[in-house]
Specification:
The protein has helices spanning 74-84, 89-106, 110-126, 129-144, 147-168; strands spanning 30-33, 36-40, 47-48. The chain is mainly alpha-helical. The chain has one domain (15-47, 68-168). The protein has a three-stranded antiparallel beta sheet with strand order 1-2-3. The protein is globular and about 45 Å long.
């Protein structure tokens, strides 16, 4: 079962996992739960929830990341998440277990590669308070706005995700 912050129901997503409002007929991939809105993304049935900045996050100079982007390894990502979003660690561990199981069952490393890419994007966004805050605003607008606002918000979310993928050198297949 997916972690609570990323959604228990699958929302439509674009091929390759990048969100684009134009590809949904008025239904952006957003669901709501008790902990807030989340944007569902990815091929493992999980998503990225840019959580509110909590006690573990510290302030940074205007526009500066809280921490450097970690290496794309499980260990480095786990350490970064522990610093900037410790509440996401249980979801990280659960999704890692799922990816490892899928990799073993299929004798394929693709699920682990998707896991690393997805969490690298999460950390890239979360470590930048201004971008993370904008992402949350867009999630809220997508969930509460009318159809046109929701499409516009989903498009903005897609742009943030595209920029994160590009910054990390993660190119969609």
């Amino acid at each position: 079962m997916p972690p609570p912050w990323c959604g228990v129901t699958e929302a439509p997503h674009a091929p390759g996992g990048t969100a684009r409002a134009e590809e949904w007929a008025g239904n952006p991939p957003v669901t709501r739960s008790a902990d807030g809105v989340r944007f569902t993304l990815g091929t493992l049935g999980t998503g990225i929830r840019i959580s509110p900045m909590g006690e573990a996050m510290t302030t940074s100079a205007a526009g500066q990341p809280l921490i450097p982007q970690p290496a794309a390894t499980v260990t480095a990502l786990r350490q970064a998440i522990g610093q900037i979003a410790p509440a996401a660690l249980p979801a990280f561990t659960q999704e890692l277990d799922q990816a490892a199981d899928q990799s073993r069952q299929g004798s394929d490393i693709a699920p682990l590669q998707r896991f690393i890419a997805q969490w690298s994007v999460y950390v890239h966004i979360q470590r930048q308070p201004d971008i993370a805050a904008r992402f949350r605003e867009l999630e809220d607008l997508a969930a509460t706005g009318d159809a046109a606002q929701a499409r516009q918000a989903a498009s903005g979310i897609g742009r943030i995700l595209d920029e994160a993928h590009a910054a990390l050198g993660i190119f969609q297949r």
